[in-house]
């Protein structure tokens, strides 16, 4: 079907409002190329030299910030983020490969990690970390090997670990205020 409603045989399809049946009827007119090339013959600026004004800039999530001092944090133990610690206080950290939605970002080639794998946040009043799997293909696991059920929130305390897609990407949550001396 062409933009003018013609099929490749030169017939047009129309619908009657009464019975909603399709009726095909032959069309005798020919395609007019003059309509399509109106800008080519005008004295206006060519399309290639025209700049489209930006009216909306896509907002990407803030990338995870390095943790400072003893604030609640997420630390990478193994995998892509090993050796890095990130702030968790007053924010939600989403893990995955989608740069438009994830703060803890994995490379596109890391196929074992879903585009939006899981989410971690910190509840300051209770001093708890909340971990939720977002329906990832290869799962999010607690340190005891239990696979998180998608959409269910799991509580983690300081020092507890979890991993993405088995044990390839391992993390630990820390809140040194809970440390017993």
From TrEMBL:
Domain named FHA is located at 93-147
Transmembrane stretches in the record are none
Q: Where is this region: Disordered?
A: 1-45
User: What Pfam families does its record include?
Assistant: FHA
**Which residue intervals are annotated with compositional bias (Acidic residues) in the record?**
16-43
Q: What's the domain of life for this entry?
A: Bacteria
- Which InterPro entries is this protein grouped with? Cell_Proc_Reg/RNA_Proc (IPR050923), FHA_dom (IPR000253), SMAD_FHA_dom_sf (IPR008984)
| Protein name, entry field | FHA domain-containing protein
At the highest ranks, the source species' classification is: Bacteria, Bacillati, Bacillota, Bacilli, Bacillales
